[in-house]
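Hello,

Our lab assistant flagged a job as stuck in the queue for most of the afternoon. It eventually completed. Since we weren't sure the result was trustworthy after the delay, we are filing this so someone can double-check. Below is the sequence as submitted and the structure that was eventually returned. Let us know if re-running is recommended.
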Amino acid sequence: MPDSSRPYEALSMLEGLLALSEAMLHAARSSDWDTLVDQEAKRRALAETLPDDVASVLPSENQPIARLLIEACLRCDDHIRPLLAVRVDELRVLLRAAPHTQSVSS
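-- returned structure --
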């Protein structure tokens, strides 16, 4: 007998992924990089728990909802990526400007 709660769990997990994606976007826009990293780790962990067959778990009437949730997550990623690229460039400049130190071994 199939587990009738699986479709609802899968949708709930996708909603959780979107909430984490939105939190990541907010953190990136606020230059809160520690929170971004934390939320991304949580999102990755949640994504890893999604069933491999998520599309087959969902009834056909829930698949458009799932698609919207996934597309919204991808849109968040699309907005985060350029913000993150700017931060990486800033860090490169800082690293180039930092004095080079050599370690001394005894």
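-- support follow-up --
The delay was a queue issue, not a problem with the job. The result is valid. The chain has a mean pLDDT of 89. The chain has one domain: 6-95.
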